[in-house]
């Protein structure tokens, strides 16, 4: 009897251990700092994934480029080395070149227009649909905000940018835009930017307010100029290899978690802009809101260059953006 009881207890212990051992851990890589909005949104996503898959999947988050910078993270998606990442559409354009057009300057004027464009643009949906064949899949569009400048010296107009070295990420459309304004563009991974400005390798950088705030770029480049030159949401993507391993029910759970985390991300970024600018000001940053007309004029040649390279795709996407601006006119 004692032996039978021992075997029964052992069997029960094994049964209790099975759910934990059956859990699959998914890696989520991103380059934002732990205090940034991407991390908060990733935590929401991770919680929802575990909830909606009844614990079959657990998302482990690796912030601040621990596993890879943005371009390398997408490569890792393709290989199946990481399961999720979130980055600018410009990063994904390396693999879906037409997505370069999503970084055309001054396409939309406010968040509501940007959200409607990314949720409803037929052209964008067609571009996103190309991704699975490249090894990754678009899940939802998170927010990062409008891109602005932080520089050591003031930037009242494009004339002040002449000859200034400005850090950006590797993207053709962004380089065209920044060069049209007058900058000399220097490509650097995000984690290296603070030190590069501090040591004088570059005189500034451009990023959304939340990224500027989280990385404290205003400490080394205190002139924060709200150029809003590019609307820059950050789509959440998943490895196609990982996606194909899931049941349809778990795939639906991932999409639901993605949509809910995207809603959180959008609200978080929009509601934090003014607070973060105020905190930067309190810490010595100088916030400038210049007339955008000279900047808009400076980047007009970018559209001609884009049309020359991408043809009808430019017209289609501009038409979608114009329809959004008409439906939701800026106040």
Which oligomeric state applies? single chain
CATH topology: the name is D-Maltodextrin-Binding Protein, domain 2
Q: Which spans have pLDDT < 50 for at least 5 consecutive residues?
A: 1-5, 10-20
Second CATH tier, the architecture = 3-Layer(aba) Sandwich
Give the CATH superfamily.
Bacterial extracellular solute-binding protein, family 7
Strand content: 15-25%
Question: How many independent structural domains?
Answer: 1
Instruction: Give Rg in angstroms.
Output: 22 Å
Determine the structural class based on helices, strands and strand pairing. alpha/beta
CATH secondary-structure class: Alpha Beta
Distance between the termini: 81 Å
- How confident is the prediction overall: mean pLDDT? 94
- Compressed to H and E, one letter per element, the order equals HEHEHEHHHEEEHEHEHEEHHEHHH
Give an overview of the whole structure.
This protein is an alpha/beta fold and 331 residues long. It has one domain: Bacterial extracellular solute-binding protein, family 7 (D-Maltodextrin-Binding Protein, domain 2, 3-Layer(aba) Sandwich). Helices cover 49% and strands 18% of the residues. The chain has 14 helices and 11 strands. It has helices at residues 2-21, 37-52, 70-79, 89-92, 111-120, 122-128, 172-181, 193-198, 209-215, 240-244, 248-282, 293-298, 300-310, 312-327; strands at residues 24-29, 57-62, 84-86, 136-142, 146-151, 165-168, 184-187, 204-208, 223-231, 234-239, 286-288. It has a 6-stranded mixed beta sheet. A 5-stranded mixed beta sheet has the order 2-1-3-10-4. α7 runs antiparallel to α13 and α13 crosses α14. The termini are far apart.
């Amino acid at each position: 009897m004692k032996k039978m009881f021992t075997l029964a207890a052992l069997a029960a212990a094994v049964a209790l251990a099975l759910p934990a051992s059956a859990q699959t851990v998914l890696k989520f890589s991103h380059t934002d700092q732990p205090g940034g909005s991407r991390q908060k949104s990733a935590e929401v996503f991770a919680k929802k994934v575990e909830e909606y898959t009844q614990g079959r999947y657990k998302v482990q988050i690796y912030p601040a480029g621990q596993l890879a910078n943005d371009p390398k993270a997408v490569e890792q998606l393709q290989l199946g080395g990481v399961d999720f990442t979130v980055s600018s559409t410009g990063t994904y354009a390396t693999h879906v070149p037409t997505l370069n057009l999503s970084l055309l300057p001054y396409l939309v004027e406010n968040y509501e227009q940007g959200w409607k464009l990314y949720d409803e643009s037929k052209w964008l949906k067609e571009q996103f649909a190309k991704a699975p064949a490249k090894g990754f899949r678009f899940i939802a569009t998170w927010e990062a905000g409008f891109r602005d400048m932080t520089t050591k010296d003031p930037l009242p107009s494009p004339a002040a940018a002449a000859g200034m070295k400005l850090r950006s990420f590797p993207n053709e459309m962004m380089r065209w835009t920044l060069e049209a304004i007058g900058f000399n563009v220097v490509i650097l991974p995000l984690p290296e930017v603070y030190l590069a400005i501090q040591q004088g390798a570059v005189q500034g950088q451009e990023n959304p307010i939340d990224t500027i705030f989280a990385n404290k770029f205003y400490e080394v480049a205190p002139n924060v100029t709200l150029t809003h030159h590019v609307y820059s949401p950050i789509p959440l993507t998943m490895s196609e290899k990982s996606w194909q391993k899931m049941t349809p029910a778990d795939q639906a759970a991932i999409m639901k978690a993605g949509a809910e985390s995207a809603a959180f991300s959008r609200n978080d970024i929009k509601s934090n802009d003014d607070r973060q600018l105020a905190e930067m000001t309190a810490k010595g940053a100088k916030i400038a809101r210049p007339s955008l007309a000279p900047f808009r004029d400076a980047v007009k040649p970018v559209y001609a260059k884009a049309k020359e390279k991408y043809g009808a795709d430019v017209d289609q996407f501009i038409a979608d953006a114009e329809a959004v601006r008409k439906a939701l006119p800026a106040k």
